[in-house]
Design goal:
Elements lengths: L8 H12 L17 E3 L4 E6 L18 E7 L5 E6 L7 E8 L7 E8 L3 E6 L4 E8 L6 E9 L11 E2 L5 E6 L21 E7 L5 E9 L5 E6 L7 E8 L4 E5 L5 E7 L8 E8 L7 E3 L10 E5 L9 E7 L5 E2 L5 E2 L5 E11 L4 E10 L4 E7 L3 E2 L4 E10 L4 E10 L7 E11 L8 E8 L2 H6 L1 E2 L1 E7 L11 E3 L4 E3 L1
Parallel strand pairs: 1-3, 10-12, 27-35
Antiparallel strand pairs: 2-9, 3-8, 4-7, 4-9, 5-6, 5-8, 11-18, 12-17, 13-16, 13-18, 14-15, 14-17, 19-20, 20-23, 21-22, 21-24, 24-25, 26-28, 28-31, 29-30, 29-33, 32-35, 33-34
Amino acid sequence: MRRLAFFPLGVLIAAAIATVGPAAAVAAPANDNFANATVVSALPFTDSVDLNGATTEPGEPQYCSSTPQTVWYVYTPTATTTVAVNLNGSATAVSAVLWQSFGSGFGGLSFQRCLFYGGSLEFSASAGSTYYIQAGSNNTGSALLQLNLQQVPPPANDNFANAGSIGTLPFSDNVDMSAATLEPGERTPAGAFTPITASVWYAFTPLVTESLSASANSCCITPILAVYTGSSLTGLTQVGTGVSGFGPDTFRAVAGTTYNFQLARSVVFGGSAFMSFSLQVTPPPVTSFFLSLIDPSVFDTVSFVNSSYDPGQIGFQSQLWTFGDGTSSSLVSPSHRYAADGSYTVKLAVTTLDGRTASASTVLMVKTNDVAIAKFSAPTSTGVGQTRAVTVGLSNKRYGETVQVQLFKSDPAAYNGYDLVGTLTQDVPVQSSNRTVTFDFTYTFTANDAAVGKVTFEAIASIIGARDAQPADNTAISTPPTKVN
C-alpha cells in the first residue's frame, strides 16, 4: 500500500507566498506632478489618461472639489485666442480647474474657473500668458480622463468691414460673443455704462423712410447696442435713442441710408457670451385711456386718464383730445365738464417723438338723472297706539324714473339710531312746476316712542338702475319731530 506524505500548514502558506510574490504597484501618469505638466503645444488638443495611480503633491490646491488623483497640463499661446475646454469622454467623477500663472509653483497660480463632467468652459487666452489645467477624480482607482481643447473662432461679422447684411425685416440672429474681438480704433458708444471689450456688426439700408427698433438680449451678460451712420470705423456718427441694454433702440431711418449696428459686450466673468440681435419696423403706439366716470351728468367733471404706451420706448411728442362737443385739449390727462346731456365721441390721438401716430375713441353717454325730496310731512303730535300718515313728495324735472323710498324712525336703542318703517317703490314721471309724486306711509306710535317723548322720521330716495346726479337732496329729516304723549 502507497503511503501519503503530510506537510505542516505553515510550510504550505510560505510556498504559496513565494509563488505569487508581492502586489505590483500602479505607475503614476507622466504628468502626475505640477512640474511635469503635459505641454499643450497646439490646438486642437486631446489627451486620454487613466488617473489610477495619480497622486496629489504637498500644498497642491483643491479648489473646486476634493480630488485625490490629479494630473496637470500647461498652455502658453503665442497669440491671443479664445479656447474651449470640455471633458467629453471622461468618467463622471472627473473634474478640472483652470488656473493662470503669475509666478512659480502653486503660489503663483490664480484661480479662473471650475469645469465638471458634462460641462464646458471658454476663456480668452492672452498671448504669452501661461495657463494650467488641473484635472482629477474625486475618488481613487481607475478613472478615465479625456481632456479636449480647441480654438473658438471669432464670429463672421466680428469686424466692421464684415458686418452681417440684413435683407428683410423683421430680422434676428444669435451669436456667440466669447471669441469676438475689438478692432483698432473701435470706440465704446457714447452713453455706455462700461467700456466694451468685444463686438460684432450688422448693417441695414432701408428702402423707405420709417422708424426702426433694434434690440439685444443675453442669458448671461448685459448687451450694449448702438446705431451709427458712416462708411468707415473711424467715421461713424451715433444715432438713435442712445445706448440700449435689453430695451429697444428706436430711431427714424431714412431711405437709402446705411445704418450700422454695434452689438458689444464688456468683460465676461465666466460662462458663455451668447447674445441675440433683432431689428424690426417699430410698431405704432398703443393708444388707450380711461375715464373717472362712465355715467357722468352735467354736474360732473370727468377726468380723462391717458394710458397710452409706445412699444418703441422713446415717448410721446404730443396728444390731442377731442371731447365730441366741439372742445379739445392737448394736456396729457385733462378734465372736462359737459354742458348738456347727450352722446359724445371722445377721441385721443397721440404722436411719438419719431412721428408715429395712433388714435382711439369711445362713445360717452352724458345723462343727468335727478330726483329730489321736495316735501316731507309727518304729524306734529300724536298718542300711543295711534296710526298716522307720513308722506314723502318727490320732484322730478328731467327723466321718468323708477324710485325707491325708505322711511326710518328714530330709536335711541337702534345700532345707527334709526329703525326701518317701510319701503315703497313706484314710477316717478317728469313733473312740471312745483308738483310732486307722493309716497304714502303709515306708522303706529308705540309706548317706547312715548317714553322717549318724540319721533324723528328720515326718508331716503334712490333711483333704480341709475346714479342720482345730486344725491344730497335725496335724504330728508322731518321737522319738527313728532311729539308722542
